[in-house]
Amino acid sequence: MTLDTLPPLTRAEITSVDWDTLAPDEAKRLRALGIDVGARVAIAHRGIFLGKDPIAIMIGRMTVALRRVHAQAMTVKEV
Q1: What is the per-residue pLDDT across 2-50, written as a single tens digit (0 to 9) for each?
Q2: Which domain holds residue 45?
Q3: With contact defined as beta carbons under 8 Å apart, do 11 and 78 qualify?
Q4: One-letter-per-residue 3-state SS of 14-54
Q5: Which of 73, 68, 67 is CA-nearest to residue 21?
Q6: What pLDDT is recorded for position 31?
Q7: What Gene3D superfamilies does the record point to (predicted)?
């Protein structure tokens, strides 16, 4: 399952990230925020418009907004 399909408030662990689909500067920013393999995340909110962008995820005590394409590059498993 990818992060963008995770149900709201369901806790999950990132098991893999397809860094090749992301621009290098975007990948660097996500890693700096701690969004990498092994991180525990949950969906806090989704955008209300057609594309459901952005997606707000909770990681640790932070809430971070991600684009849907970034969330689609991350595979997660529920914990």
Answers
A1: 999 999 999 999 999 999 999 999 999 999 999 999 999 999 998 887 7
A2: 3-78
A3: yes
A4: EEEECHHHCCHHHHHHHHHCCCCCCCEEEEEEECCCCCCCC
A5: 73
A6: 93
A7: 2.30.30.90
**Furthest C-alpha separation in the chain:** 30
Question: Both tokens of residue 62?
Answer: 């932070």
Q: How far is residue 67 from each of residues 50, 54, 73, 79, measured CA to CA in Å?
A: 13, 5, 10, 23
Q: What are 46-51's contacts with CB under 8 Å, separation 24+? A: 46/8
Q: What is the pTM of this model?
A: 0.87
d(CA 66, CA 70) in angstroms, rounded, equals: 6
The domain spanning residue 45 has which CATH number?
2.30.30.90
Q: How confident is the model at residue 72 (pLDDT cuts 50, 70, 90)?
A: very high
